[in-house]
Amino acid sequence: MSILALDNRQDLQRRVINIVGEQGFIVIFALWALYLTLNTDNFATTNNAFTVLRQAAVIGIVAIGAHFIILLGDIDLSSAATLTLCGVIMAKLMVQEDYAPLLAGIVTIGVGVLIGLINGLIITGMKINSIITTLGTSSVLGGLALRQTSGKTIAGDQIDAIEFLSRERLLNNNIPLPVIIMFVLYLAAFIILRRTRFGAHVFAVGNNARAAWLSGINTNLVKVMAYMLAGGLSAFGGIMQVARQGTATGTMGGDFLFPILTAVVLGGASLSGGRGKVFNTLIAAIFLTTITNGMVLLGYDINTQRIVSGGILIVALSLDRVRTLLL
Amino acid sequence: MSFLRIENLSKTYIAVQALKGVSFEVQRGHTHALVGENGAGKSTLIKILSGAERADSGRIWMDGKPYHPHNPKDALDANVSTIYQIFNLMPDRSIMHNMLVGKEPHRGGVLDIQTMRQETHRVLEALNASHLKPEMTVGLLKVGEKQIIEIAKALLNQSQLMIMDEPTSALNQTEVDALFKTIALLKERGVTILYVSHRLEEIFQIADSITVLRDGTHISTRPIHEVTRDSLVEDMIGRKLSSVFPPRAPSNPDAEEVMRVENLSVGRVLHTISFNLRKGEVLAVAGLSGSGKTELGKALYGDLRLSAGKITLKGQPYRPSPWKAIHRQLICLPEDRKADGVIQGLPIRRNITLSVLKQISTAGFLNLKKERQLAGEQIQALEIKTPHMDQEVSNLSGGNQQKVALAKCLAVHPEIFILMEPTQGIDVGVKFEIYQFIADQTTQGRSVLLISSELPEILGLSHRVLVMHEGRIVAELDTSTTTQEEILRYALGEELTITDVRSNKIHE
Question: Does the predicted TM-score (pTM) go above 0.80?
Answer without folding.
Answer: no
